[in-house]
Amino acid sequence: MPYLSLPSLSGYLRDNGYHVDQWDLNLRFYEEAFNQAYLQRRLAERAHLLPSEHQTIIRNLIGQLDHLEQVKQVFKTDAFYDPARLIEAQRELEKVYQCFNLLYPGSRLTQDHFYMPERHSSSAEVIKATLNTQSNPFIDFFNEKVLPELEQNPAQLVGFSVAREYQLIPTFTLARLIRERLPDIHLTIGGAFFSKIADGLKTDHHPVFQHLVHSAVKGEGEVPLINLVKAVAGEIPFEEVPGLIYNLPDGQLRVNENGPALSMNEIGTPDFDGLDLANYWSADLVLPILGSRDCYWKDCTFCDHFMQFAGFRSRKPDKIADDLKTLQQKYGARHFQFCDETMSPNFGRRLANALKEREMDIRWYTMARLQKGFDAETTKLWRESGCLFILMGLESANAELAQKMVKGTDNTLTESILKNLHEADIFTFAYLFFGFPGETLETAAETVQFVRKNHQVINSLGTGVFYLQKTTPIFKNHQDFGITPNQLDLQDDLSSIIRFEIKDAMDTEQAILFHQRFREEMGLSYRSALWQNIPRIAFFLYLSRYGKQNVLAHNGLAPFEAPLEQVRELKQQGHFLAAEHINQTILRRYPSNPMAANRAAYFALQKRNLPQAEAWLSEAQKYGRELAETHLMEGYIHLAASRLNQAQLSLEKALTKDPYLAEGYLLLAELHHERQDWARQMYHAREALKIQAVDQAIGRFAFFTSPDLVTRCQALMGQTSVMGYSPLTVQALN
Description:
Elements: H1 5-15, H2 25-32, H3 36-46, H4 52-63, H5 68-74, H6 83-103, E1 108-109, E2 114-115, H7 123-130, H8 137-152, E3 157-161, H9 168-181, E4 186-190, H10 192-197, H11 207-211, E5 215-217, H12 222-232, E6 244-247, E7 253-255, E8 286-289, E9 292-293, E10 313-314, H13 317-331, E11 335-338, H14 345-357, E12 363-368, H15 376-384, E13 387-395, H16 399-405, H17 411-423, E14 427-434, H18 441-454, E15 460-465, E16 468-469, H19 473-476, E17 483-485, H20 487-491, E18 497-498, E19 500-502, H21 508-525, H22 536-546, H23 548-553, H24 561-572, H25 576-589, H26 594-606, H27 610-624, H28 628-640, H29 644-657, H30 662-671, H31 676-681, H32 693-697, H33 702-705, H34 707-719, H35 727-733
Parallel strand pairs: 3-4, 4-5, 8-11, 11-12, 12-13, 13-14, 14-15
Antiparallel strand pairs: 1-2, 5-6, 6-7, 9-10, 16-18, 17-19
């Protein structure tokens, strides 16, 4: 769907008589660069820069993209509502991502992120990235697809909106190209993420202003932008543009005072004209809208969303209902996302009544706080007005941590709210994260238990790890939390996330590992849930099409994942012939599936056919080089060939990728069975990973499924040789 900032700003400028073109270059990149002919051109141009083996892989991948345009159409037609086809189409796109990552070595493009060797937290590194033709895929794309159009229709002012950190390098890449080829255009930048890092530009002779853009706006953009248009046209001096950050011609910094914030009722309806709405990748159009700006709670110590706003205020519910009606009539949309930081129960009641009065047939979703007011009557009213889906911040079920976060939540109330929403047929989504300063394994386990207990009314989860952000209240008081920030991150002028050390609590590495195990545990409670496998907008549309109960009952596995799961279960039960037969069926249809190829290597090894096992492993590594399982299989094969040193290296690689791969530790212990001290050491805390011996010894799930087993394993580890192979140890490893 479109991102809201451009339609909001465009609508305000157009309402004031200015001509605006708005471009969604993210959509254009997917439309024009995710194309077989485009990739073939890039390969022809860049072949001399690439190793021959990479060229071969890229050609093979491109050769599998004959139907890429049909794959893209799956997202835009009614085929979108066939989950098997949608998930398979998502998997097909992985081949395109692989092409880009091989064509531009050093970069990492995924569905959710973009990384380069250079840090986006440093302006010096970002400028290097904008010049890095080896790794930056956007230089070629902008030169071929964007710059010619801008040269034919040059603008006086080009503004960039940056919502996430991984958009910074692509944005500044385009800015540099425009500044070089069209030096008369004034370039400015703003947006949600940029507002968090804008203070890093406040120095004389800042390189961003010297080489990339001419000015920047921190916070809301309507009033600054309309005045900047006037300044660029020579109607007013730049000193009169509120909130503008820029360098004077002599390089001296200038930061203008912020002007007054607009009332939400002064801002018009978002204007999506000029965006290619028919080509967004969803079968039905979903449009974003805001009912309020900022958060009325705004006390959460870990949150910095307030940085992009000038204070909390809301639009009258009647005006919002009129906005929705206008957008429905103008664009044919009946699905909407409220991008509010949070919507209160009472405000939602008033909005629901306004929508019901207009008898509007729409569907919508939003974020809200776990607070009083979501009684049975209110949740029923929200649902009757078209609300299908609510996202809420649980964060932690430990009362002491919630108090430190200043969440203002209570588990008893939370359970009641989730139950009311669930019974009102509204799909619930809970955010939570691990590693908040002061959290331990024991307090984190309380959240695990809370989710397990309430997973019938917590319909879905968004999980992650705590990251310290420079503009949050907790950072300003980091000493009170025992946090020692990373000095390099503090020195980076565009840094937002700050690495840190902490004593007597779970650190970031431990939180990441705990989170991995939690997701595996939740895979048992929410087995193959559809929401785990498709994007949120798609899921919202599925709720609208099929209803909550049908969506909850649906198995969300990709077409090849269901038989892969069957292969795994048959293999565990010892039915190798049946498992191998199903695996061969998968490979015939999905020849580039690394897990199926890896399993084929396993079955070949069971037959003592070492050459065939090595051949299948080579296929698995071709498409799944980063998988822990391929390194594990490599270890198996080296062991079978008595290549003990290579086996140890492969197994250690596997465990680096997945520190909870118990089978890897078992194989290493077997490899060194004559060295009992070394074998026992494999189960002790590894300093680099900082995880307890018992975590390694008991495999993936024992911490969650059997606290008593943990206690007994701890006792066992202190008393018994690992190679004693006690039944308890074998059970735990299995």
